[in-house]
Amino acid sequence: MPDSQEFLAAAKDVVDRVVTTHTDAVLAAAGLIATALKGDGVVQAFGTGHSESLATEVAGRAGGLVPTNKIAIRDLVLYGGAPADRLSDPLLERDPAIAHRLYELAAPHPEDVFVIASNSGINGCIVEMAQLVKEHGHALIAVTSLEHTSRAAPRHPSGKRLSDFADVVLDNGAPFGDALLPLPSGGSVCAVSTITAAYLAQMVNAEVVRLLIEAGVTPPVYLSANVPGGDEHNKVLEDRYAGRIRRGA
């Protein structure tokens, strides 16, 4: 019978495996981001469903990099003028055409680097976005479950997966189906991909900051808006990237 201690033990095993096997991949991802930032690029982060949490981890949080922009499907409504009921479609993330509009709304610069998260790595919008990113010459870091994506049929017309387009793949270590603990009646419970993706995001963040400091660049890092002077500090940095990073819903 699943319980909290069983989950903690199982999740720790996955986290330990991810963080001890990703030294080279984390360094490679950090190198791509540091190069982009030194060239006046920003990090464009995208994920759908629960993978949006990775984009939220990357973009616009305390202790994170300021030149980061989160792309989300709701941008179609918030910035693109689509009717709100467009978001009621539960299969929207499977539509490749959506990626073109989202890319257009983000208006990335050539020097921008992309981080795209998808546990399965197979849905049409995600794969189409990855393809667009590479067609436009951007570096691409993918965060996905290699176990899941290798066992799932792609839903993109190309027959490809997110990982097929990536310059660097960060494997979140999640099992097929994401959840860790088997149920007596079948199926499983307690997903882990969000936890490991957050670890990977912050490992990369730390290495990017190290690389910038070593290059003589002051890292543009957020203070918490809930400490004295945080708002003022953050506004000065955000103003450098006006029109390129969005903060809000």
TrEMBL record:
InterPro entries linked: SIS_dom, SIS_dom_sf, SIS_GmhA/DiaA_subfam
Pfam families associated with the record: SIS_2 (PF13580)
Record-level GO BP terms: carbohydrate derivative metabolic process
Tell me one GO molecular function of this protein: carbohydrate derivative binding
**What domain of life is recorded for the organism?**
Bacteria
Q: Taking every annotated instance into account, which residue ranges of this chain make up the domain SIS?
A: 33-214
Question: Where exactly are the transmembrane stretches of this chain?
Answer: none
**Would you tell me the protein name for this molecule?**
UPF0309 protein
